[in-house]
Amino acid sequence: xAVFRVxxxxxxxxxxxxxxxxxxxxxxxxxxxxxxxxDRSIAAHIxxxxxxxxxxxxxxxxxxxxxxxxxxxxxxAMEEMGYGGEWLHPIDVAKDDQxxxxxxxxxxxxxxxxxxxxxxAFADRTYLQKQYGNFTSTxxxxxxxxxDISAYSLIALARGAAALMPEGGSIIALTYLGGEKxxxxxxxxxxxxxxxxxxxxxxxxxxxxxxxxVNTISAGPVRTxxxxxxxxxxxxxxxxERKAPLQRNISGEEVxxxxxxxxxxxxxxxxxxxxxxxxxFNTVGV
Length: 286
Known about the structure:
Elements: E1 2-8, E2 11-19, E3 22-24, E4 30-34, H1 42-52, E5 56-61, H2 67-81, E6 87-90, H3 96-110, E7 115-118, H4 140-162, E8 169-175, H5 188-207, E9 212-219, H6 233-243, H7 252-263, E10 274-277
Parallel strand pairs: 4-5, 4-7, 5-6, 7-8, 8-9, 9-10
Antiparallel strand pairs: 1-2, 2-3
Helix pairs in contact: 1-7, 3-4, 4-5
């Protein structure tokens, strides 16, 4: 492994690490990716590209009713994506004590980290289905839970991660256009994503002096487990193909590649931004 340097006058600047004839954009970096559900999740695609680019990763997973079964399912997904030997730890972001235990374990394993990927959200799927009523019918508890898990969790995780980023780092979160525009069927999750995007901007301001960058990726529809819970998802896929400038839906792999850019030093001057990976869908009017 060698470092490629470019001379500028009397100065030299390291711009990347090469393995053979290929640059490893995340070589030497350590980071966390939360949460992987299965091999189709966006977090899994981000993980695959991060590991491929040389990163050492730790992963979080949600311990369901049967934590051992949940872990086996996640490990199987990781193995199918080609990174089965990485560190994995349970975490329920709705519980402060679990977040504390998670970062204690992270510190023991990694000492310090360079990045955090927040790829998790939750809302009662009953209120994401058109046949069960409109947004107005959202109960207080459903609203609070969606915003807590989908948005507040970014604050709690960023707080834990920042303590392990003495030299700065990068934090990214996954969002969707439904946080800016009304997407029928997305309902309370749209409000939660709006809160997530605002949270990222405020964190970018707070953590900037510590050289920690915070950005979001607004991904177009991808066939993930969570996406399939949204009412009218098949209509969304068809509509994107008709309207987007690229005339197709995007892939999880494309989100993974954009994540690598935001986690790497290539985006060293980028923070507080929302980067779209949606084939240009967001740029086109009716």
